Task: inverse folding
């Protein structure tokens, strides 16, 4: 089985996320033993950010690392392990999980588009929005 990085590469819909991992120098840790659960914004999710926000974020390595680590949880949480409540991220602050009426789970309001993309060092859940830690803002380019 492949690592989170290789699995995300093969999926073909996480190119922006993979570039962000590289810019934040997190690629090696995402190839490490782990395990990690990654709530991975799709390429389409990144297009919803304000104009210029992604480029600004990619240039601010400290902020970028915090945002990416906010999408990562230590350990492996399968889709059926995700219940309403809070889970602590690698970044240190919690993500809020909520079960909707249709039984689907959201992560800070982001919908899980595809759960349980398995990797040798964890699991990826594709989400439709980039989620931000409390107090983190992404400004549009002036």
Result:
């Amino acid at each position: 089985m492949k690592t989170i990085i290789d699995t995300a590469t093969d999926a073909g819909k996480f190119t922006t996320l993979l570039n962000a991992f590289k810019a934040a120098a997190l690629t090696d840790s995402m190839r490490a033993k782990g395990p990690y659960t990654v709530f991975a914004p799709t390429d389409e999710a990144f297009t919803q950010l304000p104009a210029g926000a992604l480029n600004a974020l990619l240039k601010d390595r400290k902020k970028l690392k915090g945002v990416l680590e906010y999408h990562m949880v230590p350990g492996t949480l399968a889709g059926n392990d995700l219940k309403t409540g809070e889970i602590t991220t690698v970044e240190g602050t919690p993500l809020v999980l909520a079960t909707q009426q249709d039984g689907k789970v959201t992560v800070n309001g982001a919908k899980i588009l595809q759960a349980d993309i398995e990797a040798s060092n964890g699991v990826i859940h594709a989400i439709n929005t980039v989620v931000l830690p409390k107090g983190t803002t992404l400004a549009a380019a002036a």
Remarks:
- The chain has a mean pLDDT of 93.
- Residues 15-23 form the longest helix (9 residues).
- The radius of gyration is 14 Å.
- Strands lie at 36-41, 72-74, 85-88, 94-99, 105-107, 110-119, 122-127.
